[in-house]
């Protein structure tokens, strides 16, 4: 986990196989988010270019915290490894998001069976009485053997917003999602459990999420967009798929002293 963005960049199974995609174009000398792993998107997502595109949380240095032990962050069992992070600010730290004092906490937990849990809490600590509104996503890049042999299950017949088609709204068909071209969709009012099935590796990733993350983003840039990205290999689109627990179409508004918590748990198994 990097302090820059509190970004998880590696998650392995018991055979020490990497489960998260990370581009081979990474240059760790640059103070820039790595393309891959699990970036945290806050307080915006994609459509507000005034706040670092996908939000400044992924581009700022966080700090580690001593054990947080409250209702949102109860102490994990002894056989779980975990680390706590915090990103907070005074209003003038982020001029593109003015007059908002916030506290964003993250706990990353690795369970004894390899499950990876992420709990985030956003709190409005404004002292001027002002509310603020934000979006949030766990921008998870899953490693796959071949995008053409990958499918996403659990989103059948679910409504979605197509970011490649002027944000128009459609309904997914009755079959699992497969990939033949660029995809950038936000699925609405989604089930709490979504799976990503890699047929060649015979591997299934499962996303378990809570009701505060009602949406799932599905993204793959395909070949043309991959060639346009300076931090992404031309054919790396074949090796990844982003399936993201999110609240990006349903924005969250917090009044002072209110807080919001969003949790996802990732698990993996062979079939």
TrEMBL record:
Gene Ontology process terms (BP): carbohydrate metabolic process
GO CC, any one term: cytoplasm
InterPro entries, per database record: Aldose_1/G6P_1-epimerase (IPR008183), G6P_1-epimerase (IPR025532), Gal_mutarotase_sf_dom (IPR011013), GH-type_carb-bd (IPR014718)
Keywords annotated in UniProt: Isomerase
One GO MF term: glucose-6-phosphate 1-epimerase activity
Enzyme type, top EC level: isomerase
Top-level taxon in the UniProt lineage: Eukaryota
Reactions catalysed, as given in the entry: alpha-D-glucose 6-phosphate = beta-D-glucose 6-phosphate
Catalytic site: 139, 244
EC number: 5.1.3.15
Any one Pfam family match given in the protein's UniProt record, by short name: Aldose_epim
Isomerase found in the keyword field: yes
Entry's family note: Belongs to the glucose-6-phosphate 1-epimerase family.
UniProt-recorded name of the protein: glucose-6-phosphate 1-epimerase
Protein species of origin: Erythranthe guttata (Yellow monkey flower)
């Amino acid at each position: 986990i990097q302090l820059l963005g509190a970004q998880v960049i590696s998650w392995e199974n018991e055979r020490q196989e990497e489960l998260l995609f990370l581009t081979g174009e990474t240059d760790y000398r640059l103070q820039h988010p790595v393309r891959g792993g699990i970036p945290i998107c806050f307080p915006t997502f994609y459509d507000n270019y005034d706040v670092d595109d996908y939000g400044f949380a992924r581009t700022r240095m966080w700090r580690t915290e001593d054990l947080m032990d409250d209702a949102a962050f109860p102490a994990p069992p002894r056989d779980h490894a975990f680390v706590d992070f915090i990103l907070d600010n005074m209003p003038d730290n982020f001029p593109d998001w003015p007059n908002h004092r916030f506290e964003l906490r993250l706990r990353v937990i690795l369970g004894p069976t390899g499950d990876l849990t992420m709990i985030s809490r956003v709190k409005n600590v404004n002292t001027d009485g002002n509310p603020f509104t934000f979006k949030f996503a766990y921008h998870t890049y899953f490693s796959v053997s071949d995008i053409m042999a990958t499918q996403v299950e659990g989103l059948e017949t679910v409504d979605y917003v197509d970011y490649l088609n002027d944000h128009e709204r459609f309904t997914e068909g009755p079959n699992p999602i497969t990939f033949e071209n660029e995809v950038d969709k936000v699925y609405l009012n989604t089930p709490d459990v979504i799976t990503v099935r890699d047929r060649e590796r015979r591997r299934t990733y499962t996303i378990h999420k809570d009701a505060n993350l009602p949406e799932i983003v599905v993204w793959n840039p395909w070949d043309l967009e991959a060639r346009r990205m300076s931090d992404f290999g031309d054919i790396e689109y074949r090796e990844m798929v982003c399936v993201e627990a999110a609240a990006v179409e349903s924005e969250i508004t917090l009044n002072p002293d209110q807080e919001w918590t969003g949790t996802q748990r990732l698990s993996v198994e062979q079939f």
